Amino acid sequence: MASKLLAFMSEELDRMKREGLYGNIRTLESAQGAYVKIGGKEYLNLCSNNYLGFANDTQIREKTKAMIDKYGIGPGAVRTIAGTMDIHIELEKKLADFKGAEAAIVFQSGFCANLAVIPTLMAEGDFIFSDALNHASIIDACKLTKAKVVRYEHSDMNSLRAKLEENKADPTLAGGKKLLITDGVFSMDGDIAHLPEIVQICEEYGVIVAVDDAHGEGVIGRGGRGIVDHFNLHGKVDIEIGTMSKAFGVMGGMVAGSSVLVDFLRQKARTNLFSSALTVPDVAANIAAIEIMEASEERVKKLWANGDFLKAELKKAGFNTGNSETPITPVIIGEAQAAKDFSAKLFENGVFATAIVFPTVPKGTARVRAMVSAAHSQDDLSAGIDIFTKVGKEMGVIK
Question: Are 262 and 355 contained in the same domain?
Fold first, then answer.
C-alpha cells in the first residue's frame, strides 16, 4: 500500500515539474526587509507582503521583547479552556477601534478566520455567492458548508445580479440565509472589489455581506484602515475578515463586525474552540503595529509612492502589469515555464521575485508579482527596474 501511495505522489510531482508547476522554495538567512540574504548573498526583495516594513521594525521588536518578559511565549491552550490572556482582549479592542467596528475577534491566521466565519454561519439550505477569483481560504471554507455555492464572474455586477435573480426562487433555499463573500483587494491582480455596488445589490436581495480585506489592511483607507473605510461603508458591511500576516508584518487573522457576530463566533467557531490562541509575541507585535499605524500615515503614503513609481516605470519599459489599483504589481508573462525562467533570471541578477503559476492564477496568465514595501527606497526600486528591463529584453518579453 505504501509503495502505491509513493508511486502516485512521485508521478504527480514529476508531472508538475514537466509542466513548470513545481515550486522551489528559497531559504532566507535574514529578516524580511527591502533586501534578504539567500545563500550568503543579498537580494532585492520584491515578493514579500511586508507592505509597511513592520516584519523587522525596531519599535515592534522592542515591544514584543517587553511583553515576552511579562507574559512568556505561549497561551497554554485554546482560550475557552485555559482562559484568555488580557493582551488578546487588548488586541481585539484595538482592532475594533482601528476598523471602526463594534467588536473584533482574533484567530491564528487569515485562513483560519475564513474557516471560522463561513462554515459557522452557513448551513444546508443556505446560499453563498462567491467572486470567481476569491482566495483559496474562501473557497475551502465554502466547501466545508452544505450551503449552495454560486460563483459570479470576477467583479462583474451584472453577473452577480443575474446569479441572485436566477437563484432567488430556488425552492431548496426557502427561508435560508444568503451570504456574499469577496476579497477586498485581489492579491494576484491588485484590483479592488466594487464594494459600494455589492452592498447596494445585496441590500436589494437581503444578502449578508462579508469582505476578506487581507490585502487592504494597512494599504487602503485612512491610515490603512481597509476597504470599508476606503469607501466609507461603515455600518453597511456585515463582516470584515482579515489577516495580520501582511501589512501588520506578523501573524494572525481577525474578524470585525457587530458585538453579536463576534460573540457568536467566540462561542461557535471551530478554529476558536479547537485551536490554541495566538502566541504572546504575535499578539505583542500586532498591538505595536496598530499603534504605529494609528500614530502616523507616513508608511502607508511611502508604500503607495513606491508602488506608483514601480508600476509606472515597468509599464514605461513595456511590461504588461495588468489592471492593478494598488501597490501590487503583476508582471504578466503568460506560460508557467516562461514565468519561472523569468524569475530565475531575475534571481541570477540579484532580484528575488517569485513566479506565480496555476493553480494560484489561471493558466496562460503566469506572472512574476512584484511587491513593494515602505522599507524600499526609490534607488532600490530603480535598480530593480533596470534588472527587470535587462531580463525582459534578453528573454523577448519586452522589446
Answer: no
